[in-house]
């Protein structure tokens, strides 16, 4: 059945936030979702905020000239209901320093119930028989004005969240996993406060760049940074300037000893070619002049040292035990501990409580394999 969009209020003009702020003051919890754009601009931006407050939907144009500070300040004191909150919370933190107080994430709840499909559209269909449109998932949310179709779609993202939360909670309570979910949500909140990973000085080492040893490294370093600077100047995603394959092709030509003219001869930058070829030529020239030895080197992480034979055997026993308990509990095994975590536990079993949440650590600690390995 196709869902019917609820009535909603669009707030996109100065002074229009007052009704939403007043509504938030009257409640303890708020259902929240966001629509962002990272496909049409250099830096991801929040384009729309969707709220369900006391049974009413508010859609806030995040690109409008509004004072959002009071909104985020009030929101930080409320319990939130969200779906797949990790990306939204990290984005809100990076852009607005927002920190969530507490929340219920319906996707995390569905995972702990071992639902085979945990997307919001899938859960809407499974629990309510509603078929959500997928057209708007690839929409350009930064384009104005927003169409009614997009606004209707956005309103549905929060409309059913409280009811879905209630149904998932009943199932979690039957399995005695409500506390597990609270731990998962708390960890997600804490992780979000670190935001997204900052820029890596070795991010330019794309694809099979490890095979480059000579001039190709210098060219790849130079043209990758050219693409980043160009994308930022044009406010477009880097892949829309040119793809990785093109960068690697230029680097490989340089590695083969080809001339600057040969490297540039087969380059086609599409409709922007005439505007960008001059700056790209300068970047290639700079790359050819760069000493590969002067480029940033990868730092080896000592924590990633290979496991010893005894540690590998311990890891295998932990994995087998984890898989058995996961089958018994009808859980995805990696929800208990993923491969990386098992390797870290095998290397340093005394760090179990630092690596895992209490409910996860309890399951691993009860494994005979853990007791044997930890005491070995």
TrEMBL record:
PROSITE patterns (alphabetical): HRDC
Signal peptide: none
Domain HRDC residues, every copy: 213-294
Cross-referenced SUPFAM superfamilies: HRDC-like, Ribonuclease H-like
InterPro entries the UniProt entry points to: 3'-5'_exonuclease_dom, HRDC-like_sf, HRDC_dom, HRDC_dom_sf, RNase_D-like, RNaseH-like_sf, RNaseH_sf
Top-level division of the source organism's lineage: Bacteria
Region (Disordered): 288-310
Species for this entry: Actomonas aquatica
Pfam families linked to this entry: DNA_pol_A_exo1, HRDC
PANTHER family: RIBONUCLEASE D
Protein name in UniProt: HRDC domain-containing protein
